[in-house]
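Researcher: Next entry in the queue.
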Amino acid sequence: MRVLFVLTLAMGLTAFAPAQADQGKLLLTGGVSSIDGAAGGGLTPWAVTGSYATEGEWGGTAFVSGARTGNYGLRVMGAALAWDDRLEFSLARQRLDTDNNLAPLGLPGLLVEQDVLGAKWRVAGDAVLDTDRWMPQIAVGLLHKRAQRNGLTPTLTGPLGARPSGNEAYVSATKLWLASGWLTNLTLRATRANQNGLLGHGGANDARWRLMPEVSLAKLVSPSLAVGVEARAKPNALERSALGAGALREHDWFDAFIAWAPNKTASITAAWVDLGVVAPALQPRRQRGGYLSVQLAF
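Model: Structure for this entry, 298 residues:
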């Protein structure tokens, strides 16, 4: 039902557009949908705007993603609307299944949900058309994240001192070397989010903003197939908390992915992800597993 809602929303938004995308972009040059809803890689936003809309056109995307590691499951669904290959607005809902890992806190089977509202503006460059120059495509973005109340909220906002909602700002630089088929991206994110915001923002002992780097490297094996890797540094604001030093230590995230776009309507991304140890005091096992995402473009 939720998948149907997102797809209907995306199609409804583009139905009001005065001009639709004529699909002038190359396959995969709009990226895929990140877990926060913005166009880019699976873990990090890029400077591109979603869909195949070019100048003077509207375009939209809708996606459903899922990841399963050793002890946790994450499902994400969302939609994005792009205009003029310059502006992008996105919405995503994240749902983390903690299984029985929070049973020591009296919260077996807890589901943690978060809504993410995003906006992105391309300010300079063109990742594809400027292939003969060193100038990358540059975009700035904002994300507002709000976690839904659950059984863990009193602990997060009380002893741990985390805020249930927060904002992030980022700048991304993306460059496609068309002759060789390589794509590079660097994103700098100003954030206080714990586990991407699912465990709130900041903490009682550390409420500082941090500028965290995120990098992507991808190779276009063919016009419809790309492989690559990503790395995303995390702020680790709950390293010192009421649960003890290191109990909620946050590790950096990594993935290796393959993205396939059989046409300009659909794309499929599969990845192996490494999220490090999530809440070491409760589950010391490193969280590695599979990720799959399906995106539709309009």
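Model: The first strand starts at residue 32 and ends at 33.
Researcher: Noted, moving on.
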